[in-house]
Amino acid sequence: MKVSIITINFNNAAGLEKTIASVVNQTYPNIEYLVIDGGSEDGSELIAERYIDNIAYFITEKDNGIYHAMNKGIAVATGDYVLFLNSGDCLIDAAVIKKVVEESLVGDIVYGDLLLFDDVKEWVWKSPDTLTFEHFYHNTIPHPSTFINRQLFEKVGYYDEKLQVVSDWKFFLLAFARFNCSYKHVPMTISTYGFDGISSKEENLPLIKQERSKVLEE
Fold it and tell me: Is the entire prediction scored with pTM above 0.90?
C-alpha cells in the first residue's frame, strides 16, 4: 500500500522544514512524498533541496492559489491514498502512517482526529464516526488527518480552483452526499495544525460563508 503525502508551500520555509521532517521520519516504508511550492522567495527551495533524497517529486513555480497547487500534486501522485499535509502541519509521531495503514486504510476516505494549537492552548478536533449531510452543512472533516483514495478524485473531480477557501469542504460534501463514498473514522490523532491557516482566520469568515452558500445553491 503506497501513501502519497502532498505538501503545498508558499514562503513558509520554517513551517515547511517542520512538515518535511515529520514525513521523512516516518517508519512506514512505502511513502511517496511530493512538495509543491508556489515559487517561494524565502529559502523554501533550499529547505526542500536539503531533503531531496526523501522527496519523490518537487516543483517550485508560480501557481494560481492553494487548490491549483493541490491539484498539481494529485495529478502526479501515484499512491493508493493521498494525504495533504501542508507546510506547517506535522504528523503526530513517527509511527502514525504505519498504524493507519496496518489497522484502518480501506475504502474511499479514512479520517482521524487533529491536534490544533495556537499561542496559548491546544485541543483535539474529534470527528464523528457517522457523517451526514447535516454535519457537512455546519462542519467538515480535518483535511490534514484525512486519507483519500486517489481514484476518488476521478469520480468526484479535482478541487474547484474557482473557490479560494472551501474547495476541500466542497469535495468532501460531494463525495459523501452525491457519490455516497465509503468512509471510516480512525479514533486516533493523525496530525497537528497551527490554528492560523486561511480557513481559520477571522477576516476570512465572510468569504467562507459566501463560498459555502454558493456551493449549496449549486
Answer: yes
